[in-house]
Write a structure and sequence with these properties.
With about 375 residues, the protein is of the alpha/beta class. The protein has one domain: Arginase, Chain A (3-Layer(aba) Sandwich), CATH 3.40.800. Helices cover about 35% and strands about 10% of the residues. The chain has an 8-stranded parallel beta sheet, sandwiched between helices. α1 packs across α9 and α4 packs parallel to α5. The chain is globular and about 55 Å long.
Length: about 375
């Protein structure tokens, strides 16, 4: 087989231990979603492909975690994890509905961070062309000394800092419905890392940030890019914004590694967001990211992220890893997959149509955002 046609060496970093944390019956984040996605990958034959390898993660060390997080915060997370609750934990972000003080949270967050580090190591060392650490990404709101938005240890920042400190340039692209504010904060003054977040506008959704004028600080000016879209944006308009902004910027930046956060809370059935993407629209975005990742000298790494409709998560992340591995999924969900009821096909039926006036307003908003990003950021990269 010609070299250009060889299947990419794809690694899935996962263990069932990552699906066991119980955040409470009313919490939207259900780590069991990871096991459902893994089961669907297996039922589809994806994990049996000759070019696919599964590798279990190891917890990040405290030294690795402290690449980004303060010592006091790390010790506070350990205390929360041991059940040693005190009112002081509130200043570290624990105690609110988003980040309840759950036993075992330190170990779970350290394992997610360790999975991201391992995925990056396997790709940058040449052992794989692409790697997917499913349990990562959902921590993209975590700040240096504070838990936020379900996030505890910001695995993306921890892993990327390790790469950047070795002299490599990294482009981070976040397609979660929520702005990746913790990752942006981690690199806001750092020209070694380009962060791009495409998300539902902070005008309507947590964390209330991610506007076009948030472009970086000091030597990092221009290296933080935000594409805030309107609620109810559809596949077509979302991909229009993606195509207009992300490929030109990533190519101009010339990264050694592409690092992608693949949140699927943009899905039209997601219970806590307002976008209208389908699984096939999401997969189209991942295919575009693959084209960019394939051009990076070190390859590309992906992590999971948000996603609170179980069926959307299982199908979308199976579709994403299939793209990474060059694997052709069947059209229908295999009958051997029994974990979730009601899933028949990987692709969705189109969501109900919006009225013409709403569609027109969303279309106009998309065009304004594209124009604003091009005016604000593109000149800094020599782009017209």
């Amino acid at each position: 087989m010609p070299a250009s046609l060889k299947k990419p060496r794809a690694v899935l970093v996962y263990s069932d231990e990552q699906s066991r944390l119980d955040m409470g019956p009313s919490h939207p984040l259900k780590p069991i979603r990871l096991r459902h996605a893994h089961d669907l990958m297996r039922a589809s034959g994806l994990l049996s492909a000759s070019n696919v390898r599964e590798v279990p993660p190891q917890p990040a060390s405290q030294q690795e975690i402290e690449r980004y997080h303060t010592r006091g915060y790390v010790e506070a997370v350990k205390a929360v994890s041991r059940g040693e609750w005190s009112m002081e934990m509130g200043r570290y972000g624990f105690g609110m509905a988003d980040n309840p003080p759950v036993p075992g949270i330190y170990e779970a967050a350290a394992l997610a961070a360790g999975g991201c580090i391992l995925a990056c190591e396997m790709v940058t060392s040449g052992q794989a062309d692409a790697a997917f650490a499913m349990a990562g990404g959902v921590h993209h709101h975590a700040m240096a000394s504070r838990a936020a938005g379900f996030g505890v240890f910001n695995d993306a920042v921890i892993a990327i800092k390790g790469i950047a400190d070795r002299g490599l340039r990294v482009a981070y692209v976040d397609i979660d419905c929520h702005h990746g504010d913790g990752v942006q904060a981690g690199f806001y003054d750092d020209p070694r890392v380009l962060t791009v977040s495409v998300h539902e506008s902070g005008q309507y959704l947590f964390p209330g940030t991610g506007f076009v004028n948030e472009t970086g600080h000091g030597s990092g000016e221009g290296y933080s890019v935000n594409v805030p879209l309107a609620p109810y944006t559809t596949d077509e308009l979302w991909l229009r914004a993606f195509d207009a902004i992300i490929p030109p910027l990533v190519r101009a930046f010339k990264p050694d590694l592409l690092f992608c956060q693949l949140g699927i809370d943009t899905h039209y059935k997601d219970p806590i967001t307002h976008m209208r993407l389908t699984t096939q629209g999401f997969a189209d975005a991942v295919r575009r990211l693959k084209l960019l990742g394939d051009k990076c000298p070190k390859g590309w790494v992906a992590v999971g992220g948000g996603g609170y409709d179980m069926g959307a998560v299982a199908r979308a992340w199976t579709m994403a890893f299939a793209v990474m591995a060059g694997f052709d999924l069947p059209e229908r969900v295999p009958p051997g997959f029994k974990a979730l009821n009601g899933l028949t096909t990987f692709a969705d039926e189109p969501p109900p149509a919006l009225d013409a006036d709403t569609e027109s307003q969303i279309n106009a908003h998309t065009d304004r955002v594209i124009a604003a990003v091009k005016e604000t950021v593109f000149p800094l990269f020599g782009l017209a």
